[in-house]
Write a structure and sequence with these properties.
The structure is a single chain. By secondary structure, the protein is mainly alpha-helical. The protein is 76% helix and 0% strand. It contains ten helices and no strands.
Length: 258
C-alpha cells in the first residue's frame, strides 16, 4: 500500500490484475466526482493533484492509472457531464423524425435546447454544469477547441443534416451559422441564467423552467426560420447597404475638407 506524505490514512491503489472491475469503476467514479467539484469551484489551473487525491481518497498512482494526466481528467469530467445531454438531444431528434419523416423546425430547436436546460436545472447539479462550462470558456488552455471535436462535432453534424431536410434550398453554410448562433444562446443562458432570473425577479420552480424552455425554443425556431428569407429580400438589402456605405464615404470626405 502506498501512502502520501500528506496523509497517513490508507488510500485506494490502482487496480491490480485480479481486482474486480466493479471496484476499479467505483474508484474511477470517485475520482471524477471529486475532480468535478474542485474544477467547478476553483478551475483547472488552481486545482492540484494533491487536492484531487485528498478529496477522492486515492493516491496519485490511481489518478494516473485511470486518466493519465490532469488535462485528460478535466476533459473526461466535462465529457461525462455533457454526453448524457447529447444522447438525449439525439433521442428527441430521432423521435421527431419518426413522427413526420422530416422533423419540424420547432422540434429540431426543442431537441437542441431542451436537454441542455434540463441538465442545468437537474436536482443537485444546478450549480455544477454552469460552473464547469464557464471554466471551459473562460480559462486559458484552449479547452473549448479541445472539447468541440470530442463532444459536439458528431451531434452538430446530425442536427445539420436534419435541418437540411427540413429547410431545402437554404445553404449549408447558413444552416451551420444558425446552429452556432443557437448554441450561443444556450451557452449565454447556461453561464448567466441565475443572474437573468434574479434581474427578472422570477422565482425558481418548475413553472419558471417551463417558460424559460418555451422562450428559448421559440427564439431559436424564429432564428432558424429566418435563414430561409426569400433571395429577393436579400438582393433588395444589397443596394441599401451600398447606399449607406456611399453616404458614409461622403460624410467622411466632407469632414476632411473642413
Amino acid at each position: 500500500m502506498i501512502h502520501t506524505m500528506y496523509d497517513s490514512t490508507p488510500l485506494a491503489e490502482p487496480p491490480g490484475p485480479g481486482e474486480p472491475a466493479g471496484r476499479a469503476q467505483a474508484t474511477r467514479e470517485r475520482i471524477l466526482d471529486a475532480a468535478e467539484r474542485l474544477f467547478a469551484e476553483h478551475g483547472f489551473a488552481a486545482t492540484s493533484h494533491r487536492q484531487i487525491t485528498a478529496e477522492a481518497g486515492v493516491n496519485l498512482a490511481a489518478v494516473n492509472y485511470h486518466f493519465g494526466s490532469k488535462e485528460e481528467l478535466f476533459l473526461e469530467v466535462v465529457r461525462r457531464r455533457l454526453e448524457p445531454v447529447n444522447r438525449r438531444r439525439l433521442e428527441m431528434l430521432e423521435e421527431a423524425e419518426r413522427r413526420s419523416g422530416v422533423a419540424r423546425i420547432e422540434d429540431i430547436a426543442r431537441a437542441f435546447a431542451e436537454p441542455v436546460l434540463e441538465a442545468r436545472e437537474e436536482s443537485g447539479r444546478a450549480s455544477v454544469l454552469p460552473k464547469l462550462m464557464a471554466r471551459v470558456v473562460g480559462e486559458p488552455g484552449g479547452w473549448a477547441e479541445k472539447l468541440l471535436p470530442l463532444v459536439f462535432a458528431s451531434v452538430a453534424a446530425r442536427f445539420l443534416s436534419s435541418l437540411e431536410r427540413a429547410m431545402p434550398g437554404v445553404k449549408r453554410e447558413d444552416l451551420l451559422w444558425g446552429l452556432v448562433f443557437s448554441a450561443g444562446v444556450l451557452g449565454h443562458y447556461m453561464l448567466l441564467g441565475d443572474l437573468i432570473r434574479r434581474v427578472a425577479g422570477a422565482a425558481p420552480g418548475a413553472d419558471h423552467e417551463f417558460r424559460t424552455t418555451e422562450r428559448m425554443v421559440d427564439f431559436i425556431t424564429a432564428g432558424l426560420k429566418g435563414l430561409r428569407r426569400a433571395p429577393s429580400a436579400k438582393k433588395a438589402a444589397a443596394p441599401r447597404r451600398a447606399e449607406r456605405a456611399a453616404a458614409e464615404r461622403q460624410r467622411g470626405g466632407g469632414r476632411k475638407k473642413t
